[in-house]
Amino acid sequence: MPFKHVALLGLGLIASSIALALRERFPEIKITGFSRSEKTRKKAKKIGFCQVHDTVANCVSEADLVIICVPVGAMKDTMRIAAPHLAKGVVVSDVGSVKSSVIKTINTIIPKGIPFVPAHPIAGTENSGPEAGFSTLFNGRWCILTPTTQTPIEATKKVKEFWESLGAQVKEMDANHHDLVLSVTSHAPHLIAFTMVGVADEFSKVTKSEVINYSAAGFRDFTRLAASDPIMWRDIFINNKDAALEILGRFTEELFALQSAIRRKDSKFLQEYFERTRKVRRSIIEAGQDTPKENFGREGR
Ligand code: NAP
Questions:
Q1: I need a surface site. Which of 126, 182, 196, 210 has the fewest CB within 10 A?
Q2: What is the CATH number of domain 5-173?
Q3: What mean pLDDT do residues 16-37 have?
Q4: Residue 54: phi, psi to the nearest 5?
C-alpha cells in the first residue's frame, strides 16, 4: 500500500466500499471523507468507515491520495474546491465511469505539478449512498486506469498498487477506448434496461395489466439495472455521448435484424444468434466475473 492517508471526496457506494476495504486490510491507514450534504455526512459518521469532515479543505489538506468519488458531472466543481488545499506530493485520482471528458475537465483545473491518475473500478451495484458500500466490492474485479502522456509513471504505478491491494486486477487503457468498451458492457445495457422498464410502465398504465405483480425473471433483471442512481446515469450519457450513440446505432441494427428474422420465422437465424449469446454468458463466468449459480446466486424465484 503506497499511501498513508486517503481522502475521499463523495461518500456514496464507491467511496464507502473503498474505505471499508482499506479499513479491513490496512487498519493503520488514515481515511478522511467529505460529502456535500449534511445528511450523507451524518450517515457516514454513524457507520464510521472514515473520519468525516465538514469541509473539503480539512478533508484533503494532509492526504497523499485524494480520490474523487462524485458523479462525473460534479467532478469539475469538486476538483475546483479541492485544488487550493492539496498537499505537496499528493496524487489525485477518481472513480468516474467515463474517462475522456473527466480527464479534459480535471486537467484544466488541477494545480501544475500535481499528478492526476484517472481510474474506473468496474464494480458496483444498483444501490447508492454510504450505507450501500461493502468491503469485498472490488475483490477480483477489474479497475481500469487511463493515464495520459502527462501522467507521471510513478503516480500511475502507485494507484495501480493501491487498487491491487484492495483485491482488484488492474489494466491500463486509452481513455477513448475505455469509453467505447464501457459503452458496450455497461452504458448501453443500462439504457436498454431504462427503456424496457419505461415501456413496461407505459404499457401497464395503458392496458392496466399487472406488470409488477406478474413480472418474470427477465423483466426483474432489467428493473435491477433500471433502479440505478438517476444522476450518475444522466451524467454518464451526457459525458460519453459519442460512444453511447455509436453503440446504440449498432444495437438498433441488430434489433432490426432480429425483428426481421422473427417476421420471416427464420428459426435458424434466431437459434444461432441465441447460441452465440449464450456462449458470452459462459465466458464471463469462466473469466471469474460472475457466479455460475442459478439466478445470479440470488435467493427466491
Ligand atoms: P453515490 O452512491 O450516488 O454517491 C454519490 C456521492 O457524490 C455522494 O457523496 C453525493 O453527495 C455526491 N454528489 C452527488 N452529486 C454531487 C454534486 N453535484 N456535487 C458534489 N457532490 C455530489 O455514487 P457512487 O455509486 O458511489 O458513484 C460515484 C462515482 O463512481 C460516479 O462517478 C460513478 O460514475 C462511479 N462509479 C459508480 C459505480 C456504480 O455502480 N455505482 C461503479 C463504478 C464507478 P450527497 O449524498 O451529500 O449529495
A1: 210
A2: 3.40.50.720
A3: 98
A4: -90, -5
